[in-house]
Amino acid sequence: MTLNGILQILGYLVVLTLVTKPMGIYLTRVFDGERAPFERILGPIERMIYAFCRIKPDSEMNWKQYGRAMVAFSMISTLAVYAIQRLQYYLPLNPQAFAAPSPDSSFNTAVSFMTNTNWQGYSGEATMSYFTQMTALSIQNFASAAVGLAIAVVLIRGIARFETDSLGNFWSDIVRGILYVLLPLAFVAAIFFVSQGVIQNFKPYEVVQTLEGTGQTIAMGPVASQLAIVLVGTNGGGFFNANSAHPFLNPTPLANFVQMLLILIIPAGLTYTLGRVTRSQSHGWAVYAAMMILLTCGTFASYWAESRGNPLLPQNADQSTLGGNMEGKESRFGITNSVLFATVTTGASCGAVNSMHDSFTPLGGMVPLVNILLGEVIFGGIGAGLYGMLVFVILTVFIAGLMVGRTPEYLGKKIESYDVQMAILYALIFPLTILVLTAISVLGEDFGLTSLNNPGAHGLSEILYAFTSATGNNGSAFAGLNANTLWYNTALGAAMLVGRFLMIVPVLAIANNLARKKRVPESLGTFPVNTALFTALLISVIIIVGALTFFPVLTLSPILEHFQMLSGQKF
Amino acid sequence: MKDIIASTLLILILTASLGVVYPIVVWGIAQAVFPFRSNGSLIEHEGRIVGSELIGQGFLSERYFHSRPSAAGSGYDASASGGSNLGPTNSKLISRIQTDVEELTGNDPTVRVPADLLTTSPSGLDPHISPAAAEFQIPRVARARGINESELRRIVAESTEAREVLILGEPRVNVLRLNLQLDRISR
């Protein structure tokens, strides 16, 4: 660990904190009926879209109508992505004449992009035409992010509203999310990225003679426009296989800094929106603080582990000059930015990577894994992070209520058994999916284990990471695992669907139930949700739930590998 | 049914606007304002394109500075980016590094090799090496080219890129640009 490294990390955290409030205010204005920014320019476009799609934006929906609209939209999205992939050979903008990906791979990718996971069993530059990237994958980068954002907004409305069953209009939430939030941010970011060296063209792959006279084929494409929304929407699916490690996707340290900021800007802003809409700004900051503390601890833990390097390397490999374990890390980012990016991208459900998590030291790589296992609530994916965190808030309020022996209250509402049941359901579906599917893969000698790139305890980490990433809708990988097989394409596809929809349904149910409640006046017995004590309790609940569930499997994977590495064992 | 129709129409209009118009507008601006960057930062040398400033390439000759090992395709394949994805306890990783160390040090246990010359980058296309890795190669390149080491050290220092905004990133040397500079000075 170096002074410069620590300064870089702290600098990032400070800038993130500074943008939280303006972003939060902006989001509130878009979704909460206050006069939206840029209404004059974007308003007519918005109304045109409503007219074309025959949408009545002002008709309020209850939770079932909202849910049905969301499922319909997701279904049509999946079909569109699947169809475009299967037909890509016959569609335009395919200069490398790529054939269609296999049906199981196309299914996996369609589900992956629709659920905001962006798990990639394929390699971008060897599989997808420019047309597929632009019209199938990029559209879902916008749409799936807007859906996540909408669900978070609905839950916030459920908390803020009283004695009603109307939670907003799905269509208008989606359109406004894309038009007022995602598109402007993505557009500005795309132009900035080009200035740094990210490519944006439709040329066939460039074939050059290198300085020493050998041939080199350089993949091209409309990268910048896609990269921008991939980050802003916490999608994470790289245009090229190497994702944000590729110099065409992430050419400079400055570009890298902006990428990390874009990943967390909306999730962080949403905590401020939460406070503003529920008229309890200090509660918003208390939630923010819990996320920030977990992010900071994770970053420094991973930084410490990676800085120590790999003790198995020969004595005269000089790891200290460059600051640690350099396998799978780019020179321009070094240890610090690789570790910070890894923590940020897994805290959020982004999943873009600028280093290979598979090659991290066992404990360094355990941090990204644990970030996802905790439920992606450390800022979390756009929208998904906040609603996941609010489920933990409900559990925390409930547990605090049990401690003092009173009916728990949250922002003027009684938390009753139905709310807690739904919260527990949310908290159980996640580990159940991960652990069962991991166990099946480990037992499947001819379909689960054949995909491994690494033997020993690290192999278990690869499989565990894959199902964690899919169920958590993250999309990053211990990329050694060859997941483009029938079993992994299907099982991971199913995990992504469960991780998205079976978790959104309890959230909508909670939103509905909360919105119907009467206001309960605050009393002496109310547990305040805007104090440091609350933040500490919230963090404890998150860690206890995560640790109790996953500690056994973690001891068999990264923790075991760590001690094997220290004792000099290789596999 | 109403939902299905609205979804289909919305996906259609999104595909047309975000899938086609948006990338083309970005492309138009990019080509107008940053043509060099948006087309891949391709470098011309003696009348032909020799590669991209941002994409690393492999060098074998003694007369050139060498890049990091690469796991992209068969090495620096810019149509198959990717890392080794070998875990820290994988014996394939350890023995690969052992072999490289022996080659680079000539089995001299006192020589220390900067780790980036022994490790693969995640993209397999890392265009840079660390200043330490450049320093390590100076004696070899100086010998092969017949220029003195201090002269070479000055050239390396000139092509070393500093951190951005004072603290961001790591100091680094662009290998292709450095080697081009060498070719301009001594043929």
Kindly report the average pLDDT value of chain A.
94
Count of discrete structural domains of chain B:
2
* Structural shape of chain A: globular
Strand content of chain B: 5-15%
Give a description of the structure.
- The complex is a heterodimer of chains A (571) and B (187).
- Chain A has a domain at 25-267.
- Chain A is built from 17 helices and five strands.
- Chain A has helices spanning 3-31, 39-53, 63-86, 103-114, 124-127, 130-160, 170-196, 223-232, 253-277, 281-307, 334-347, 362-373, 384-404, 417-443, 457-471, 486-516, 532-566; strands spanning 206-209, 215-218, 317-318, 409-410, 413-414.
- Chain A has a two-stranded antiparallel ribbon with strand order 1-2. Chain A has a two-stranded antiparallel sheet with strand order 4-5.
- In chain A, a hairpin with a 5-residue loop joins strand 1 (206-209) and strand 2.
- The radius of gyration of chain A is 23 Å and the shape is globular.
- The two termini of chain A are 28 Å apart.
- Chain B is built from six helices and six strands; from the N terminus they run H-H-E-E-H-E-E-H-H-E-E-H.
- The relative contact order of chain B is 0.12.
- Chains A and B meet through helix 1, helix 2, helix 3, helix 6 and helix 7 of A and helix 1, strand 2, helix 3, strand 3 and strand 4 of B.
